[in-house]
Every structure is written in C-alpha cells, then in structure tokens.
Amino acid sequence: MSREPAVTPELAREHGLTEDEYATALKAIGRTPSFPELGVLSVMWSEHCSYKSSRVHLKRLPTKGPRVIHGPGENAGVVDIGDGWAVVFKMESHNHPSFIEPYQGAGTGVGGILRDVFTMGARPVAVMDSLRFGEPSHPRTPGLLRGVVAGIAGYGNAFGVPTVGGEVQFDSAYNGNILVNAFALGLCRSDRLFLGQAKGVGNPILYVGARTGRDGIHGATMASAEFEEGEEAERPTVQVGDPFMEKLLLEGCLEIFAAGVLEGIQDMGAAGLTSSTVEMASRAGNGVELWLDRLPRRAKHLTPYEILLSESQERMIMVARAGEEQRVLDICAKWDLDAQVVGRVTDTGRFVVRATPGYDPLSGAPWPDDPPVVVDLPVDLLTDAAPVYTRPCVEDSRLTDRYGVDATGLAFDPRSDLLELLSAPNVGSRAWIYRQYDHIVRDGTMVRPGAGDAAVVRLYCEDERGRREKLIAMSSDCNGRFCELDPRTGAAMAVAEACRNLACVGAAPIGLTDCLNFGNPQRPEIMAQFRDAIDGIADACKALGVPVVSGNVSLYNETTEQGGPRAVLPTPTIGAVGLFEKVSDVVGAGFRTAGDHVFVLGPRGDDRLGGSEWLTRRTGRVCGRPPSIDLAAEAALQSLLVRAAREGLLASAHDCAEGGLLVALAEACILGQSGAVLSLPAEYAVTPGGLFGEDPSRVVVSVTPYVLELFSRRVAEAGVPCAFLGRVGGASLSLEGVASWGLDEMREAHASALDDIVGR
Amino acid sequence: MRAVVIQFPGSNADFDALHTLRDVVGVETSYVFHKTPTLPAGTDLVVLPGGFSYGDYLRCGAIARFAPVMADVRRHVERGGLLLGICNGFQILTEAGLLPGALTRNAHLRFECRDVLVRVDADGPFTQDLRGRVLRLPIAHAEGRYQADEATLQSLESKSLVAFRYVPAAAPDARLPANPNGSLHDIAGLYGGPRRNVLGLMPHPERMAEPILGGTDGRLLFHSAVRAALAR
Q1: CB-closest option in B20, B140, B175 to A440
Q2: Which of A181, A358, A589, A728 is deepest in the core (most CB within 10 A)?
Q3: Rounded to a whole number, what is the distance in Å from the CA of A445 to chain B's nearest CA?
Q4: How far apart are CA B126 and CA B220, in angstroms?
Q5: What residue of A is the nearest CA neighbor of B50?
Q6: Segment A67-111, tens digit of pLDDT
Q7: Alpha-helical regions (H) of A260-301
Q8: Taking Cα atoms as reference points, which of A367, A232, A241, A365 lies closest to residue A294?
Q9: Residues near A73 by Cβ (< 8 Å), separated by ≥ 6?
Q10: First vs last Cα of chain B: how many Å apart?
C-alpha cells in the first residue's frame, strides 16, 4: 500500500474545498481528517453531489401533481400511468467525460442513467439523447459527433433499450464544452418501487456487479470545475463502460426485486461507493459500516481512498433483510455477477469504513479479523450539513446590446433560404445519427425517430392480473440561443416546446425531467441565468399543469479562452413524458391525403428573429430580440391539440420550431411525401420574420374535409387563433406569390444536413 | 405447437421473439435459460434471439455456441425440429457450424437500424408459399455482412438455400443502398439443417408483426412455421 499524504489545508484546497469549507469540516469533526476522509468530504461537498449552488433555486420548481408518486430526491422521478403501473424517468448530463473521451463518456452517460432507472425497480424501455456540439466547421466537431453517437449506440444497443428520440444542436458556444444529456424511462408496477434507503439496523449491505478499479476517481470533482487547456490530462478520470455487465446487472436486479428480499438499493454513480452508501444512510436516518477488505476488485493494491472514490461502472449497493443474504448471492450467481456482503446498517448515524492496511484480497489471503477504522464521519455532515450557497446574481448588462440588430439589409430570398435552412445541421435530417441507434428493440416503438414530433412507445404491462398495453410519448427540447438572449423566456419556451411536441402526437403531458447545463456558478452573470431559467421553467410548468419529477444540474460548462471565460449557451434541457388514452389518438407529423385542409394554429406572434437559425446564419452570432411566449395561449393550444387528436379530427400536426413556419410546412411535405398548395394568410408578411421567425406556440395541422366543421367548432371553443393556408396535394410545396419547391429538392436538402460534418 | 426462446447472457430481443410468438401469433412460448441442459419435451420451434450474447466479446456469437443448452438444440435440429436464428441468433448459427459462412462487420463499419426490403428466394418451413414475395423488415445490426468462400456460395445457390436476399425499392434512395451491409450475393438469410429446418436471417421479422409497429410482413414467417409444425 502506498503511503498516504498528510492532510493539510493545501491538500484540502487541491481537493476543491474552499478555506471556509475546510474550516467548517475541521470544526465539525473536531480533528484533522484522515486522507480517505478528506476524499469523502471533497466528493460529497462537490457541486455535483451537493448541489450547493443550485439547491436554493431548485426549490422553486413545481414538483407535485396528482400522478406524481416520487418527485425529485430519489434516483429518478416516478409517475402513475394507471392500472397499477408507473413510469420512472430522469435525464442526466455526462458533458465533461464526453469531451475528453467521447465514446466512453457518452456510453457511460447512458449506462448511468439506465442504472438510475432500474435501481428503482423499473425495466428501462426507452432512451433519448440531447446533444450539443460546437459549430459544424470546428475541427473537433466531426470526431466528437462520431464518437458520442457511436458511444451511445454501443451502450444502448448492447444493453437492449431502444433509443427513440432526442435532439442535436450545433453552436460555437459549445466548441470547447459539448453537452451530452441522456434520458431514460422505465416501466414498473406502482406498488413495487425500490428506494435508495439503508433501512433496518443490522441489515447486511451487499455489493453487486462489476469489480472496482481505479477508473473515474474524482469524476464528481472533475464535473465541478471548468476545463483548462490540456484537459486530456484528466483522461484517467473518465469511466469505461461495459454494457454487457449492465445487462446482466439489470436482469439480476429485477430477479432480486421480485424475490422480495430488499430494503433498499442504489447504484454507484458519481462518487461511487461513498455517495451511494452515505445517501442511503441519510434517507433512512441511519448509519452504515463498510468493510473494504471484502470488496470485489479488479486492480491490485487499491487504497481505501481509491476504493471510496472509484467510479467504476455497473455496480450496485443493496440493503437486504437480515437472513436473506444468500438469496441475493444465489441470484447473482445465476447471472454470473460478483456479489459480496460488504457492511451493515447501524444506528450510529455515522459513515464508518474499516480496512486493514496493506491487505489485498487478490493476494488470496483470508480477510483479517477486526480491521481498523479508516473513516468515521457523521452522515449528516456529508449530506444535510453540506455547504449551501446563495451565490450573487447579476444580469449581464451587455446582453440587451445584442438585441439591436437591423435585419433589413440582410440577404433574403425565400426560395433559396428555405433550401439552405432545410440542409442546415441545426434543422435537417438526423437520420445519420438515429440509424446508428437500435430504436426498435423491445417491440414497442410506434413512432420512430424522425417520423413525428415526439417518440411514441407502447408499454407492455404484464402481471398476474393479465396483460395490458399503455401508450406514452416523449420528447426532449431546449433552444439554448433563446435562453442566452432571455433566460427566463427561453427556459419557459423549452418546457412549452417539449410539451407541445407531445400534444402534436396526441399525448397529454404527465411529467418533466430537466437537465440544467450552465457555466461557472461563481460568476454572477451565470448564476443570474440559472436563477432566471428556473423561474422560466416554473412559469411554464404552472401554466401547463405539469410537474418536474426529477432532474440534474451540470455547472462549470465553460472553457478559458483568450479574453476570459466562455460559457456554453444556458441549456436547461427538458425531457417531457405524455400519456395517450388510446392507440387511435396517435397523430403523425406528415401531410397524409391530397385535399386535406392545412391550417396554422396558435397566436400570430411578433415575427422577432432574435436567436433564430436564419438570423444566426446571416449574422454569424446569437443576437436579436428573442420571441416572447404567451403561456395561457400555449396551454389553450395544447389542450385543443390533445382533444382534437382524441376525437380523431387531425390528419397531421407538426410544431413550428427551428426555421419557423416555412420549414415546418416543408417538413410536413417531406414526411408525408406529399406537396401542398398554400397561400400565406393576410396577416403574414413575406419577410424573414414572417417566414423564418421562430415564434413559439404555433402548429401546422392538416384536417380531412369531412371533419372540418367539427374541427372548426373545437377551435372556436378553445379560443385558439387559426389561419387557413390551403390544401395538401401535388409534388411540390407551392406558396402563392412567393415560390415553389419540388418534393425531391426539399427531401435532398433535408437529407444532406449532416453531410458536411460526417460525409455522405 | 410449442416454441422456446433461448436466453443467453446478453440476449436482448428475447422479449421481441416471445411477444410476437405468444401474443401476436398465439403460440405457447416460454424462455429457456442458457444454463438449462435440455429443452422442454415437445418443443417444435427453438428461437435464438437477437442481442449481444456474451457481450459479443471475442466475435459475435462465438461464445454462445458453447452454452450448455446448445447440445440439446443440435439434437433438436437432428430430429428435424425447427430452429430460427434472428440477427445475433444467425451469427450464433454460423459460429456453431449449423449454417455455413460468417457474418462480419458491416461494410460502412456502423451499426444500422432501418427497414429494408428482402425477397423470399427459397421454399422452406418458414417461407411456405412466399417465394418471390418482397417483404419489408427492419434490420438492427453492426455485423451483418455475409461472407463465404466461392464454393460455399455456389453450393448455397445451387441447392437454393438462400432464403432472403436484399432487393432495391421501386424508387431507390441513393442514401439507403438496398444491400445495407455489403453481404455477398445480397444474402439476408439462409436455410440449412437436414430438412431445411434451420433458418438464420439478419432482419427482424419479430419486430414487424403488428400494424402499430409499422407493418405485418414479419408475421408471415411465424405463421408459416406454425403450419409446418402442425403438419409434422
């Protein structure tokens, strides 16, 4: 065993603890901490584990609702879908590891979020990925995109969960700090949930899954600091994934759950063994004692410090009922999983770790008797008493300077601009990405990626009462450009768009998860963005009646460049989940039948171009006054869409998003392989703002003539503005007095969107 | 009729096969764990499902052929029982020597998931009365490029053992080649076994067997297998 360094204030600082934090710790412990204790303190008090900068703001999010079974605080949120079944879902970031090592970073991001879901007793049935890369021409973008997509595919495909949706955006603000946010959703019986609690004094603590190595040590601390140049030196802190092990772990866990012998379970994610056992003890109000000599390991001569901080993947901690250890061990043997009793639940309220100096079980020697204590800290010091900061917030005074952009002199040609936008990496087809994901495994994917505004998945609910099918929709969204220009409105728009996508396919939202990606919280202008984005999410959640049930915060997403720090666009990614009443409610995004009437539903908007793809392309920067959103109008629109879908009144529905109204019309043509003969309503001007402005709350629908009267009645009842555009038909999109585009040229433009980055 | 779906560690389309056989086609179907030494008595159809058996470590399907259950699967084939290998199951069949040739990395080196068109090119228990028909089925694999030496290919052709071949659409899309992986002779599936009772194919018929999943062409194979089992 290597000699441990002496713990000094300087070493504490190197571990990311501030002078004040270290002083607080010294006072609470009453002595100088041991080296492993310092490691434990540093990870538990890191931003990643403690949410010390964000906690005061997160409290403002609405988290309650009639369907919510478990909100934030558990491993994932749980929402009732009726008949004794529930969905479990969450989104999490794996940004820094994915930038350093894209394949493993993205893959283990998927692996981590899958474990968060199945640790609650649910079988994962769908994954989405929300990705942000630097500008397409940046030299690192192609390699990062290829690596991240291959990593997600490599993990999810082998594990056997369909990757059904997601989004990707390119912007120079992500050049030095990409975002990889992974969402997972699982299905379980609402009366068979498992929580991360170390309940029952004297109960055994079991370690199950992959053996511990040195990978990922201090990953949580890395995720809590901004990047410096030469970040490749961080490579040893990136975890390496094994989806095969994870699949075995899933099947083993599900069988152990069914055996009814567990009191609690938690996956070893960030800060590994330490964080999982401390959090379980904290939730149950108990203590834990761990015996590291017994811990399954793959590397020789691991020190207690390394074992406690390792982030080796595919590992679970379980608390079984006393006397049921063997049942757990037997099931693990069936699935070829390593498992070992490594501790017990105590009533001391302390986190105690025992390890024999110099002992390594890989030597073959038996466990020594009575190993000495190497860590003895109060559980609440590591959790509830962790520092919480109300950091200063100051809005960036230069922000509104960007609003004053004169668009009148910019080149504008509706015909070529539409084709340019359709082929833009931020707008066109993502087929190169989603074809690498198995998006159909488990026989549930009803609306595949690219085929609709949201993914639709059939859930197969089978228990002793029989078999039942449920249908859900899911979507992930966020336009960081709007959030940059107006954090509160931009964040509200992200929630609105995610839920609008659900409404477009015919589903009513039942819950949200968020993944909040921001820069350095110690900069007041970043903290102001964060504060305002939380308020925006809360505004929209209240207006739309949908709760936030889980989430994740990722701060320090910035790089140091010449001229100072550069943060990513504030990116509060929203993952929304909706429920259908019946299969016939599902609505596609493409035009279907010649002769159907085409309308645009929703408020007219104010044609502001700020943050739009068109303006960003023309000016080369994120600028302009961003659109506003009327949340009451948004709610009325979404209710109307869901009602009309349930009554079978919609042939198609498609949201106006990046590229605005004209792109939405073109996409409806491409998806439906049908043209349309349209004219702009009088209130729309043939201007960049009118055609390509990205005002929210607008949806292009087509309606079969037979139900026009019923449709019009519902529209009038809802009080939603509705403008007639024309009819579906022909082999081109024709906009009277403006231009006409052939289906083939639109399809080819759309299909070519990623060609310049990844090749044809 | 009775069907079983073998669960290797890492199988992940086991549910897809069980669901389609049991819930869509109405066949009594159960899982058999890879450590089980014998198949249930009266088994008519054995399915080796898609997935990543043993993590696809070493080579796809290379370790699964040593699983304890495989000895009885071979006896089942020798008795004339039906054996269907889908995707990873096809890879296992070639590694086990139950079908000739090998499935290697796709020519473009990426995992690919999309619908393809395949033409039924041979008669057999899984394709009764379907010869010449073009089916739309999904693929989802990274190693589906069929390769064999020239003599083997000639033998497969002359014995009419090529069950499925990738074929172009009426309106071809240059971005989506008809042959998605570079397979020789556009081979998507093969018959083998003493009575053409073994079928291996890369596309997933069990994922295209219900209208809400986008089509029902895959169901035809299972209906054919039921007919064959009933006729025995």
Answers
A1: B140
A2: A181
A3: 6
A4: 8
A5: A441
A6: 999 999 889 999 999 999 999 999 999 999 999 999 999 999 999
A7: 272-284
A8: A367
A9: none
A10: 10
Structure token digits, residue A155: 């993990």
CB-CB neighbours of A89 under 10 Å: 31
Q: Is-contact A152 A107, C-beta < 8 A?
A: yes
The helices-and-strands tally (H runs, E runs) of chain A is 26, 28
Closest CB to B10: pick one of A247, A442, A460.
Answer: A247
From the candidates B19, B34, B141, B204, which is the catalytic residue? B204
- Are A407 and A426 in contact, with CB atoms under 8 Å apart? no
Chain A residues in contact with B142 by the CB 8 A cut-off are: 157
Q: Does B138 touch chain A (CB under 8 A)?
A: yes
Quote the longest CA-to-CA distance of chain B. Answer: 50
Residues constituting chain B:
232
Summarised one tens digit per residue, pLDDT across range B138-150 is 999 999 999 999 9
Catalytic residue positions of A? 48, 94
Tokens of A418: 């539409």
Marked catalytic residue, from B87, B95, B141, B143: B87
Three-class secondary structure of residue B44 per DSSP: coil
> A 235-274 residues with CB below 8 A of B?
242-245, 247-248
**Closest approach of chain A CAs to the CA of B137, in angstroms?**
12
Of B19, B34, B76, B206, catalytic: B206
Please report the pLDDT score of residue A235 as a whole number.
Answer: 46
Closest C-alpha among B204, B49, B211, B115 to residue A458 = B211
At A486, is the pLDDT very low, low, confident or very high (cuts 50, 70, 90)?
very high
Q: Out of B55, B56, B213, whose CB is closest to A443?
A: B213
Active site residue B87: yes
Cβ distance A178 to A95 under 8 Å? yes
- Report the SS3 class of residue B63: coil
Residue A1's pLDDT band (boundaries 50, 70, 90)?
very low
Answer yes or no: are the C-beta atoms of B207 and B16 closer than 8 Å: yes
Q: How many helices (H) and strands (E) does chain B have?
A: 5, 11
Report the 10 Å Cβ neighbour count for A569.
Answer: 27
Rounded to an integer, what distance in angstroms lies between the CA atom of residue A8 and that of residue B200? 65
Res A514: pLDDT? 98
CB within 8 Å: A243 and B52: yes
Cα–Cα distance measured from residue B116 to residue A435, given in angstroms and rounded to the nearest whole number? 12
For the beta sheet containing A466-477, the strands, ordered from the edge strand earlier in sequence to the opposite edge, are A445-447, A455-463, A466-477, A571-579, A508-517, A548-554
Q: β-pairing, A571-579 with A508-517? A: antiparallel
Dump the DSSP string for A639-693. HHHHHHHHTT--SEEEE--TTHHHHHHHHHHHHHT--EEE---TT--SSHHHHH-
Query: Which site among B14, B25, B111 would you substitute to test the A interface, given the most A Cβ atoms closer than 10 Å to its Cβ?
Result: B111
ipTM attached to this prediction = 0.97
Tell me if chain A has a CB within 8 Å of the CB of B210: yes
* pTM for this prediction: 0.96
- Identify the closest residue of chain A to B114 by CA–CA distance: A435
Structure tokens at B106: 């796709």
Q: Is B113 a catalytic residue?
A: no
Instruction: Identify any residues that bridge with A740 across adjacent strands, giving them in sequence order.
Output: A734
* Identity of the residue numbered B224: S
With beta carbons less than 8 A apart as the criterion, state whether A534 and A517 touch.
no
Structure tokens at A51: 């949410």
CA–CA dist A281, A278 (Å, integer): 5
pLDDT-derived band at A281 (thresholds 50, 70, 90) equals very high
- Buried b / exposed e across A434-456, counting CB within 10 Å, b at 16+? bbbbbbbbbbbbbbbbbbbbbbb
